[in-house]
Amino acid sequence: MNTRRTLHALVYGDVNLNILDGSAIWVQSMCEALSRSEVHVRVLLKAPIATDRLVGPLRSMPNVTVIDPFTDGLTTADEPLIASEAVQLLTMLDAQQPADVIVVRGLRLTAAAARNEQLAGRLWSYLTDVPQTVDQVTDATLANLDDIAGASRYMLCQTEELRCYLEALCSAAAGRSILWPPIVPAPGFALPDREPGRPGTQQRPVRLVYTGKFAAAWNTLEMTRLPEALREAGITAEVHMVGDKIHDEPDLPGWADQMRSALSSTEGVIWHGGLPRQEAMRLSATADLGLSWRDRSLDASLELSTKVLEFARLGVPVLLNHTSMHERIVGTDYPFFVSTVEDIVRSIDTSDLVDRLTSAGDHVREATRPFTMDAAVDRLRDALVRALPEAPDVVAQRTTSQPLRIAIASHDLKFFTRIMEHLQGLPNVEVRRDDWATLADHDEQLSKDIVNWADVIICEWAGPNAVWYSRNKRPGQRLIVRLHRFELAAGWLADIDIDAVDQVVCVSPYYARLTQEQTGWPVDKTVVIPNWVDIDQFDRSKLPGAAFTLGMIGISPHRKRPDLGVEVLSLLRRYDQRFRLAVKSKLPWDYWWIWRKPEERLATEELMDRLRDDPTVRGAVSFDGFGGDVAAWLRRVGWVLSTSEDESFHLAPAEGMASRAVPAILPWPGADTIYSSRWIHSDTQTMAESILDTVHSGTWLETAQQAHAEVSSSFPLTDVCDAWATLLVEDVPPGSAGRPLHQSKTAR
Hints:
Rossmann fold
């Protein structure tokens, strides 16, 4: 096996590390996660150092170098860097030591970095400062997001809500947005025993703690009033507040002065000012309750408070708003959900407070285990392996020291994007694209330049691109052609010089056999490598009611048989009106070559007539539009239907399985060579009966888990990419690269 190469990272957060807040902590945590993943890190500071409470721990981390441009002679300014200055310095540092990973935070800064050709493609972009609602999004914001998505290897999203939101705003974000939740480090000290006695007495006040910035929407001024409110209920309380960043509130004149005064002079409020993170955590660990109670306007926030997680990891229950995001972490019956001062008083003014605090503290500590540094390091290592894979031995052991030059020629790369990204991430490999404007239109001079440059040419789709390259490739140049389905009837295959082709890749055993039968091409040139399924991208938590939602992805042309999907819905709704059908697709009239056919128009009219006139389905079908945000859309789908007359592979059921939906397939030719027979139904009646029985028997969740396990062990993205990487330099024997979906790895 190859020794893992040394990786280098540049990190820049558009944040001031002199101020203790969540964004500054993020920089520290990101550097620690990279360091523990054995990545060599250079972190660039934005502002001159005024206090080393955050920078000091950075300097002590192994493999981390702090770049202070103000003392290292990289700038003559004595003010914090602006975006353009930061990008210029990142570019200079990258030129000195090329970075494999460039982690950046902040919308404006990241947009500027994305427009820098030298940095583009290696950005790991972390965005939290995007408008929180669609009505606040401007054209400029959309343009920035498009640039960022196009230049990023990953877009790091703090929450599932943010990931789905970004994918809806920017289709290019789909497939490259990964979860990067806040990280809570281990305390680094022994947790104190809870102070004896019932909290709330004169001898034993209830201790509440808040750490972070002081802002109106964060209810920090209202928190200072809690000691008095609790005192009126006969409860003695202290509110400990840590932080030194008091926001000016333009819409609330005088608010900052009120906040400062309340911190300094309110009975029962102890203001500790800014503290190093470890000291702040030590103080928090002595509290009975943490405070993360905010204005209701923030309930729809796409961000998750780091402070909630820090308190919870210390075993300190948190007073927090009742939101779906918080429910996913602490459960629906969490006893310290609050929305008003009165709620807080009621939650504390109970005779069993000690038991409730102990039980809730144990619960939240366990619930936040996925947010620990150890969990973050595991996530990061997985992301690094995926973004910067090691080449298979057969590629790595090439005798030449020259990079392996790969060209990809296609008019449509939608089924090849992740494979291409994998190839781009391989060491000692260079990738170029020959983008054809249409199936037959291309820049011939560019294609000739590709021929002169490339060692390997991959033609995605066996169309005119494959014809041209098979006739123009150099002797000894490797040519790989991937064939899907429609090419078999299009007439181009006869024009391909098959003697010039090294391997023909088909996506299913059925179409591999059909290709051989129709073309007579040599059997040893045809190999099956299935389509990829990005398990990690699709594996997202389901929304309530998903079990009652059928989904269809792609219903044009009519041979996809959306009418049969509607028939299944009709059969189900005769027994249970909760069932619905969601369709994610362009419609027939969106494709001129489909809509010009009379039979397609007639079939579409008949379908729409039924949706209008049939009471069993009227109002129960939604058309959700075409887009790359399929993974987000699948969160509300419990069943993915495949009712086509024919398919080369049909990725939709596999994507559904990856999302923990159950596939329901009619027996199109070759379906049983890809999908297990348990998911294939003889007709719409048996399909509907199976769906109804599964949901009503309460076994849908178990069945969905089985579907997910099955697809995870069959053709995950990593296996498909490894097969393609091997194919770059050597022929793959027929049948060795692909296998039916239902055949487990252990059965090979």
